[in-house]
Design a protein that fits this description.
single chain; 209 residues; alpha+beta; 2 domains; two-stranded antiparallel sheet; 5 helices; 4 strands; elongated
């Protein structure tokens, strides 16, 4: 009888020890999971909360190269005695529209409109001023039909057109800045879990891209 009683007590003690050990193991797993979750989730959340400014890239060198090539084409075409008119026309058209196309490629729509307006509008003003000035020149007409204008209006148009054509390349190069939004980084979420009923613990991972 004493032997059976001792064996029963030892079995009960072993069961209690095993249960205690399982509880301790579950608690340790839960604590370890919580520590790991805090170590991973806190930096990820801090990275999400941090506002990353957009990157700014200057691409004005592209418009400068385009203007240089256009002017070179005009000069080379004008140097030819015969057949240079086509090169001059290509150079003029390129000088008017190529910088605007570059701004459109960089999605800078406002500067595209400003560049196109200054170049085309300035050329129109310059041409109108030259025509107006030439029309007011006395080409040997009689004194009974003098010019209706003294040429001041044509001079003003020439000045405005020249100013617009000079300002356009400068503005194109200085204001040619492209803003790009930063790429979204992936975020990881770790959630620990523990079950005292099942005497188990673990972690759940989730990723957002």
């Amino acid at each position: 009888m004493r032997l059976s009683a001792n064996s029963s007590e030892s079995r009960a003690a072993c069961v209690l020890r095993s249960r205690s050990a399982m509880r301790i193991t579950s608690i340790q797993l839960a604590v370890a999971s919580l520590v790991l979750a805090l170590a991973v989730a806190v930096p990820a959340q801090a990275q999400q909360d941090e506002e990353i400014p957009p990157t700014r890239t200057w691409y004005g060198w592209q418009t400068l190269i385009a203007d240089s090539l256009s002017i070179s084409t005009i000069v080379v075409g004008a140097s030819f005695d015969d057949g240079g008119g086509a090169l001059v026309g290509v150079g003029i058209v390129s000088l008017l529209v190529t910088p605007a196309i570059i701004h459109a490629a960089h999605r800078n729509w406002l500067l595209m409109g400003v560049s196109l307006g200054l170049r085309v509008g300035g050329s129109a003003l310059l041409l109108a001023g030259i025509i107006q000035s030439l029309s007011n020149i006395d080409w040997g007409s009689d004194e009974e039909n003098p010019p209706s204008d003294d040429g001041s209006s044509g001079t003003v148009l020439v000045i405005l057109g020249t100013f617009a054509l000079i300002s356009a390349p400068i503005l194109d190069a200085v204001l040619a800045i492209e803003e790009r939004a930063p790429a979204q980084s992936s975020a990881w979420t770790v959630r620990p879990w523990a079950s005292a009923r099942d005497r188990s613990a673990g972690m759940t991972f989730a990723a957002a891209f």
